[in-house]
Every structure is written in structure tokens, then in C-alpha cells.
Amino acid sequence: MRKNLMVNHGFPMSVNALDDLKAVPEALIDSWYLKTEFEADGKQLGFTWHHMVQPYDNEIKVSVESLFMDATDDIWLNNKILSSVNEENGIATDHMYCFSSWGDFSGDMNHMSLDLKIGENEIHMNFIPNGEILYNGGTGLINFGNTGSYQYSFPNMKMEGTFILQGHEYKVNNAYAWFDRQYGIAQTHTEENSFGPGNSSWLWIGLSSLQNGRGAVSLWDVYLPTQRHAFATFLLQDGVMKNASADITYDDIWKSERSGHSYPNIINIRIPAEDFDVKLTSLATGPDAEFVHEVKLLSGCQCLYHISGTYKGKKIDSAVDVEMIGDVCGEI
């Protein structure tokens, strides 16, 4: 067969969306993440789940975090597991399967499921990806200092199932969720990882359904020891991806008495290149949205914000989860 009759795979991406669903053996940090915002029974609800394998105290450990959110009643329930890899907490190596004492997450490109039980709080959800894939940076690789951050997302997964918060059961239909697959590989073995809690701080926002249930934007504001990187990767309806610098400012900043970190109640984001102009206002009225760990530098704040503004002239008016790790609004 002539070589020019070979199948054309197009532009060479830095990640393989199918193969990289399972664990990546050479990864320094390997993580699977879900987040969603939805309404049920007249309440603005949401949750996040994050399962990660990483080195900790000279040992490879499993870190699992969950956040149950009810913005209507100002409820923010953070939970965390930090465990050695064992029969109860870990990951499979030959397919995507994450398990812990809370439950498990599994699936493939066509279907995923999450089942968790943490006391009187539970999540039992099924997810159907719609075929859209957002590759951060356009290829799935962004270099932060000496660390390569590999990341891609299924930003508009159809979601249905049951959400139980403090014993109250909510049926969820016609909702959407964001799945994020991320892993980090240090570019050298002689330098300390520059992109990670303690060496950096960051804000991340994933906004789904930009136009008619399709399209998305992944937005970062990353603070390395000597640099700031504020930017976004847009996934358009036709599958085209665009990177653009972001102008992000913070207002109504509050300082935590528990961690000493500072976080904003108001976030203003302008991305002129994509005609994107929004304001985010925190729906949390107290400090409960902050999660504080024994290692203070691993602490952060995560909750729902109300987002309003425009994208290419179209009105945006919804709730969105905002993730902040480290002292995002602190001093240099």
C-alpha cells in the first residue's frame, strides 16, 4: 500500500482522549474530575468530585474530594479522603475506574457513572458525552513553568440521576455536567514541580453550553512564583478551538481567618478577542465554601457563582462553579 493511502489522523494532539481515560503510568499527578450546576425542586444545586493519585510524604497516595452545593440554602459540604493506595482506595490501570470508601466512578467515551455515599449525602448519576472534546490550549498540553499540564474535557455531558443532600432526595433530569481529565508530567527530574499547590495558586472556571447546548470555555488565572497567566480556551460549536488572553479583575475580596488566604466575592472577566464580557458574584454568604487542609497551601475555596454578561452578543445568566486553589488574591 502506498504511504499516501494511509489514514490521515490530522493534527497530532498531545493527549489521546480515548487511551488517556485510564491511568497514565508516567504521570506525576493523575486526576479525574466532575462538576455540575443544576436546578431541582426550585433550588440551585451542584456538586464536584475529584479523584487524584499523587506523591505525598514520599508515598503515592489517593486524594478524593467532594463538594455538595445548595446555593439557595447556602449549604457547602466539603469532604476529603487522603489514603495510601489499597483495596479500598485506588484506580484501575487498564480502564477508567476510580474507587474509594465513598463509592466509584467508571465509564468510557460513550457513558460514565458516579455513585457516592457520604453519610446522608449521596450522588447516583449517569453521564452521556455528546462527542465534544475541549483540549486545553488547543492540543491538550499547557506548560506551566517546568511542568507539562495535560488536560482535556467533555464539557457538555447529559446528566440524569439522583442527588441526595442532607437526606433530601432530588431527581435530576435534563442537566449537564463537565468531565475533566488531567495529568501532570515534570519536564525535568532535577527541578521542583512549579505547577501545583504550594508552588502556585490558581482560579479555574469551566463554562458549558455557550451556544444552544454546545461549545464551552475553559478559563485559567494561574500564579506561578514569578509569573501570571490569565487565558481561556474556547471550544466553538463547529469544533474549532481558540486560545485568548483574559483580563480578570477581582473585587469585594475577603480574607479567611482559618487559612489566611484571600478570595473574591466578585470576578470580572473580559476577553475582547472573543467578545466575552461577564461578571461573577459569589452565591456563598459565609466562609463555609472554603476547604482548609492540614497543609495550608493545599487549601482553597470552591462554590457556585452567579454569572451574567454576554458572549458574542448573546446573554449569559446562570450559575457556574468556581475553583480557587491557594491564596488567589494574596500578596506576592
TrEMBL record:
Give a Pfam family name. Answer: CrtC
Q: Which residues form the AttH domain?
A: 30-184
Q: What is this protein called?
A: AttH domain-containing protein
Protein source organism: Lacrimispora algidixylanolytica
